[in-house]
């Protein structure tokens, strides 16, 4: 499933119609019928369904929805919220077809009159405006949207809530607050943005017959269970521990031994063959009893901070993670930069490690082996010299640009975690819940992706699968014996076996 901007969606539709000879009327028919089927699952057989139709494709979809539901004996009221001369082309064709099948169209003359229809409806279908809206709505649409939000008991939006921008970077708008949204063809970028996602309500993307070939130019995708199962390597009968990676985790401090311990546990539970923790003797003695399967390298410390005064044999490892719970002492900064310079295997930089490189991002560039950073929004904003608000208005743009400029992989953590590659490919993870908004969740994720990138898949696939499994474990925990209030990072580790079993059906 791809993620598109408004212009990309227009190009996909145009390619499908002009080069692949798909009739626009057919695409509209497919979209409307698919949405009508979903609406049937939301309504009783007796309630009135009010469909507000505007100009363009969304309005045309609305007429198809009306005809489909009318033919199934539902009580349908279609209200056209624009003058007749605004209904043209394929939308006009489907309007006439709806009328020919016995439907009636009420023309709204004053927006205030719409309240009568909204009050009487069990469900209101918002087929008013599509993906072309940018900025604030003009009247009478602004007033119509305001009344709809106030009066309707249940709103279903077609493709996108009317008034909502499809793209990132737009923060001044007024939009329908939908309870459900059925996206058509592909979800739009604003589905995954912090300041716009809630307007969609519960959303589902519907297959409307657009050819896969038309999407090939897109480099943004949704990472879901299909992608996980397609890319997750299987284990072979004669595998041994060396086949699944020797990982090194560098970090820990007397103030944060737990973070370090959770990264080790998560890496082992996610399938790493061997995991070594490089940390101080104090941390090792505090956590060794919880991590019986891990081995350790003891690093010297000065005033509680790890130093680089003892060399680490990095050649013995297939991947390294650094920064977890290690603190921000200048001595530790030198250690991070030394490891980053010397590592000739994939390296993950997390937590305090990101703080230590923020003033010298050139250290990321020119590496022969992959570098992966795993910032939350505050850390990403710090690295880019932005406010968090600026970053979150355009997270796709900023994370992709950073990845391409510095030649690194970026896992921008959040409600909708975005994974970006140095080539500009991006994916959005679909698992996870608010229970993950707890200290330690990121430390667990670092251990999981460390294990994943050593499992015989591409780095990008490993990062996406690590994020997916992390969220899946949290989702299963909340669906069984936890809630989003009490879920802890250690519960996510405990849930990894159940997540694997659920996905792989072992």
TrEMBL record:
Gene3D superfamilies: 3.40.1190.20, YjeF N-terminal domain. It catalyses: (6R)-NADPHX = (6S)-NADPHX; (6R)-NADHX = (6S)-NADHX; (6S)-NADHX + ADP = AMP + phosphate + NADH + H(+); (6S)-NADPHX + ADP = AMP + phosphate + NADPH + H(+). It comes from the Bacteria. (6S)-NADPHX binds at residues 57-61, 130-136, 159, 259, 325, 376, 443. SUPFAM superfamilies: Ribokinase-like, YjeF N-terminal domain-like. Residues 224-503 form the YjeF C-terminal domain. Its cofactor is K(+); Mg(2+). Binds 1 potassium ion per subunit. Pfam families: Carb_kinase, YjeF_N. Keywords: ATP-binding, Isomerase, Lyase, Metal-binding, Multifunctional enzyme, NAD, NADP, Nucleotide-binding, Potassium. InterPro entries: Carbohydrate_kinase_pred_CS, CARKD, Nnr, Ribokinase-like, YjeF_N_dom, YjeF_N_dom_sf. AMP binds at residues 413-417, 442. Residues 9-216 form the YjeF N-terminal domain. Its EC number is 4.2.1.136, 5.1.99.6. K(+) binds at residues 58, 126, 162. Homotetramer. In the C-terminal section; belongs to the NnrD/CARKD family. Belongs to the NnrD/CARKD family. Catalyzes the dehydration of the S-form of NAD(P)HX at the expense of ADP, which is converted to AMP. Together with NAD(P)HX epimerase, which catalyzes the epimerization of the S- and R-forms, the enzyme allows the repair of both epimers of NAD(P)HX, a damaged form of NAD(P)H that is a result of enzymatic or heat-dependent hydration. This is Bifunctional NAD(P)H-hydrate repair enzyme. It comes from Virgibacillus halodenitrificans.
């Amino acid at each position: 499933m791809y993620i598109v901007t408004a212009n990309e969606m227009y190009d996909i539709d145009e390619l499908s119609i002009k080069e692949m000879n798909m009739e626009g009327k057919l695409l509209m028919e497919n979209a409307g019928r698919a949405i009508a089927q979903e609406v049937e699952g939301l309504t009783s057989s007796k309630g009135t369904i009010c469909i507000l139709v505007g100009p363009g494709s969304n309005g045309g979809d609305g007429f198809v929805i009306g005809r489909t539901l009318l033919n199934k004996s539902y009580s349908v009221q279609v209200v056209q919220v624009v003058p007749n001369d605004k209904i043209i082309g394929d939308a006009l064709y489907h309007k006439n077809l709806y009328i020919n099948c016995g439907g009636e169209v009420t023309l709204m003359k004053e927006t205030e009159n719409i309240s009568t229809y909204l009050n009487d409806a069990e469900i209101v279908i918002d087929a008013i405006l599509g993906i072309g809206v940018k900025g604030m709505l003009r009247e009478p649409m602004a007033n119509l949207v305001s009344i709809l939000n106030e009066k309707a008991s249940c709103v279903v939006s077609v493709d996108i809530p009317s008034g909502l921008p499809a793209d990132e970077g737009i923060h001044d708008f007024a939009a329908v607050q939908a309870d459900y949204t059925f996206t058509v063809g592909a979800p739009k970028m604003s589905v995954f943005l912090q300041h716009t996602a809630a307007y969609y309500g519960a959303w589902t993307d519907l297959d409307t017959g657009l050819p896969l070939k038309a999407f090939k130019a897109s480099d943004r995708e949704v990472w879901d269970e299909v992608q996980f199962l397609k890319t997750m390597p299987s284990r072979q009968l004669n595998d041994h521990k060396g086949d699944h990676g020797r990982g090194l985790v560098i970090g820990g401090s007397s103030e944060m031994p737990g973070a370090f311990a959770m990264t080790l546990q998560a890496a082992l539970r996610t399938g790493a063959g061997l995991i070594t923790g490089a940390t101080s003797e104090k941390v090792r003695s505090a956590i060794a009893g919880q991590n019986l399967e891990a081995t350790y390298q003891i690093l010297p410390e000065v005033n509680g901070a790890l130093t680089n005064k003892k060399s680490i044999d990095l050649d013995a490892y297939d991947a390294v993670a650094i920064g977890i719970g290690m603190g921000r002492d200048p001595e530790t900064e030198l250690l991070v930069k030394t490891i980053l310079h010397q590592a000739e295997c994939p390296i993950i930089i997390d937590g305090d490690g990101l703080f230590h490189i923020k003033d010298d991002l050139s250290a990321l560039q020119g590496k022969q082996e992959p570098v992966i950073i795993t910032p939350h929004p505050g850390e990403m904003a710090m690295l880019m010299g932005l406010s968090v608000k600026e970053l979150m208005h355009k997270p796709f743009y900023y994370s992709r640009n950073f990845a391409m400029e510095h030649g690194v992989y970026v896992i921008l953590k959040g409600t909708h975690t975005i994974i970006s590659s140095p080539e500009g490919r991006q994916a959005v993870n679909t698992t996870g819940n608010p229970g993950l908004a707890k200290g330690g969740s990121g430390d667990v994720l670092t251990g999981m992706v460390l294990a994943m990138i050593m499992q015989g898949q591409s780095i990008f696939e490993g990062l996406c699968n690590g994020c997916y499994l992390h969220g899946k474990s949290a989702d299963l925990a909340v669906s069984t014996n936890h809630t989003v209030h009490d879920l802890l990072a250690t519960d996510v580790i405990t849930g990894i076996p159940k997540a694997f079993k659920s996905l792989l059906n072992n």
